[in-house]
Design brief:
The protein has helices at 9-23, 28-36, 72-80, 88-96, 102-108, 113-121, 152-174, 185-195, 200-207, 211-225, 230-239, and strands spanning 46-54, 60-67, 100-101, 127-130, 133-134, 137-144. The chain is α+β, with helices and mostly antiparallel strands. The chain is elongated, with a radius of gyration of 20 Å.
Length: 246
């Protein structure tokens, strides 16, 4: 799908701004503010995000929830009655981690009519959900609104933003400090050249090592910093003062 023909210049600027903010997110309040900012791109009434683990029996165990604007009474009831065990949106998210529009899932998944009726009573009728898998941990980001519609523009925006929101959520949940992150001298050297915009091949020539070895170091860097790409690795390393700005 060609986003250039669907997103306006303003859309692209707003998406990039949200991504930039997610790179410097340091706490729950920051992330809630970023998620709230999506409303300027995709108007909605409610938003929530969280992390969960799957145990050996594939049972979902939520362990971090950031309520941005969901009805408190509904969330309290939802957790108390463990509705996440029957909610088709949640179950589908932690099965395939793909962008989903609620009504599409309701058409193909069986669900409790009482559950849906109760959710509608709280104004939760239409929405989007998306998440990212990270080992045995998964994220879920949800926005909902009575007048929300399914369209390519919203799909593209959420597909671009979600991985960065996921990384921000993972980062603040682990809250690693500089002293806890140990990069080898070679990894720091590779990071320095990534910051300069060098490719793996460029770095292999500069450091006189194989391209495969460079990529090995990059994979280790991403794992240690809990990031999903090179740009985030540079942003986190600068934030933690693991490498110098100059």
């Amino acid at each position: 799908m060609d986003f250039k023909n669907i997103l306006s210049k303003s859309d692209v600027i707003n998406v990039l701004e949200l991504i930039h903010k997610s790179l410097s997110c340091i706490n729950d309040a920051n992330l809630a503010e970023i998620v709230s900012g999506i409303t300027y791109l995709i108007p909605h009434d409610y938003a929530i995000c969280g992390l969960a683990k799957l145990d050996i029996n594939r049972k979902l165990n939520p362990y971090k929830i950031i309520n941005v604007s969901y009805p408190f009474e509904w969330l309290e009831l939802y957790i108390k009655r463990e509705y996440y065990l029957i909610d088709p949106i949640v179950q589908n998210n932690f099965s395939n981690y793909k962008l989903q529009y609620w009504s599409d899932i309701y058409k193909i998944k069986s669900q409790s009519k009482n559950f849906l009726s109760l959710a509608h009573d709280f104004g939760l009728e239409r929405g989007y959900a998306n998440g990212v898998k990270d080992g045995n941990i998964g994220s879920l980001f949800v926005i909902s609104g009575k007048n929300m519609k399914h369209n390519n523009r919203s799909d593209i925006i959420l597909e671009y933003i979600t991985p960065h929101l996921h990384q921000a959520l993972i980062s603040i949940s682990k809250n690693k400090t500089r002293s806890e992150i140990k990069l080898s001298p070679k990894e720091k050297e590779v990071l320095k050249w990534i910051k300069e915009g060098k490719t793996s091949w460029d770095i292999s020539m500069i450091l006189e090592i194989s391209d495969r070895t460079v990529n090995f170091h990059i994979d280790n860097i991403k794992r240690k910093l809990n990031v999903i790409n090179r740009a985030q690795a540079v942003a986190v390393s600068l934030k933690q003062e693991l490498i110098d700005i100059d």
